[in-house]
Structure formats: structure tokens, C-alpha cells
Amino acid sequence: MVLAFKPEEIDVLTRDHRLAIEPSTDREFSMPAVDLLNPDKCRAYLDGVAGIFESPSSVATVSLFAKRYSFLIIASSLYAMSVYNKGMDYSIENCHIESSYQGRAWLPKMRLTEWNVSQPAEGGRKEWRDQVIHSLFAENIVKAWHSLSKLGPVSKAVLWENTAIYVYWLYENKFGEGVDDIQKSRVQEDFEYLIREAPAHLFGEKKNPFARFDSPKVVTQASEAPIRIRKTCCYYYLASDEPEDYCPTCPKIKHEVVSTC
Questions:
Q1: CB neighbours of 230 closer than 8 A, spacing ≥ 6?
Q2: Three-state DSSP class for 188?
């Protein structure tokens, strides 16, 4: 496994992108990701993490957990694909949620059972990229969202937008840091493909789930920096002690657009 990645690549994936090599010592909220597809196991797990989120609502718990799950799944997989040109099996059966804290914040990591690393054949990157994306979304995330949306109940549109916001943030703000020109070009190309061009079957859906959230950033009277206003609410405010404590990009805020970026 380590031979397939350079030591410095492993360091980046584990330090910055939530990939775990070893099981966590905290087993209370660690489990095989496939357990999310078992209604009883999933419900018991969500009941536990509701205490972490201090969430009084199953709707908020599901959405907040989905945010964590989105990040720990896509951060390492998409970074490896776009920056290192390497892919791994992120099917839900091969993934384990490993509980982890930074201070008081619960920031779980993702561990893979099998580390079978692939790279594109010469001239075959587009086909290889489709395989990597299919493993990540059609064989993992959409299955998790189908199960979680029934337990919330939460619209899958909310869960997909929870994923989309991290795809945007990672590609626009993180993946381009410290890369060479070839990697930078690949990062941009993959980003454009994911949010606009990738066919629906790679996500296990009838339409590309990111395309509907593809909107320009705007400056509003309610924001100090350009933002991409969400189309759905993630229900964060339901778990907050403060009334109407919405995320800055929440559609519940009365955004008056000043300019488009």
C-alpha cells in the first residue's frame, strides 16, 4: 500500500485530508461504513452522534452527520485523483468510519480495508477517472444518502448539496495549494468535469447531482465576502443554541445581492 504512494503523499492524505491508516482507539463512534445501510445499526449510530452535535432533531442530526461523512469520503479520494493521479476503492464496503477529535470537535476519518491503488493507462485517464468517481459516488455516497434520507427524514437534495459545498471548497481553495502547473491544470479540469459534465450514472442518480448547485458566487448585504448561496437549508440552526443561527450561505437569510462574481 505505502509503495503505491510516496511517503510525502501519504503524509498529506493522512494529515490534511482525513485518511486513516490504522483503526481509531475510540471505538464508540467508529464503524464499518456499510453499517449505514442497515436501518437499525444506522439509527443507533445517529442516536449516539446526536449527542456530539447536541441536536434535538433527527433531521438536523442526519444533515450534520452527512456533512462530516461527505468531507471524510471526498477529501482524500478526490485529492488523490486530481493531484496525485491515483485512485483507490472507496466503495462503501471498503470504508470504515474512524472516530477522531481535534480538541472538542468531532472530526472523523476514513480508513480503507483494501488499498488497491490504480493509475490511468497512457491515454486512458478519462475512462479511469470515471471509474474512480463511480466508486466514490455510485458505490458509496448515494447509497449512504438513500439510507440516511429515510431516517431523517431529509431530502437527498440537502445531502447532495452538503457534498457539493465541500467539492466547491476543496477544489477552489485547497487542492490548488502547492501544486505544479500540470497538477493545477488537472485539478481545474476534474473540477469542471465533476460539477458540469460527469454523467448521472457515475453518481448513481438520474441527473448529475452537482449541476443544480452550480451557481456563481455573489456579494450580498448579509456577507462580507463573495458566497455561493445554498439552494437548500442544512438545518444547522436546529442544533444551535441561538435563534436563527443560520450558516452564512443559508437560503433562509434574506440575501440582497450587491454584485455577481
A1: 161, 165, 213, 247, 249, 250, 251
A2: helix
pLDDT digits over 38-83, tens only?
Answer: 999 999 999 999 999 888 889 999 999 999 999 999 999 999 999 9
- Cα distances (Å, whole numbers) of residue 253 to 19, 232, 257: 35, 11, 12
Nearest CA to 63 out of 168, 151, 173, 167 is that of 151
Cα 234 to the chain's mean position, in Å? 14
- pLDDT per position as a tens digit, 115-133: 999 999 999 999 999 999 9
Task: Give the DSSP letter of residue 173.
Answer: I
Q: Which residues contact 2 (CB under 8 A, 6 or more apart)?
A: 10
Positions of E strands within the chain:
19-20, 31-32, 95-98, 101-102, 105-106, 109-112, 218-220, 257-260
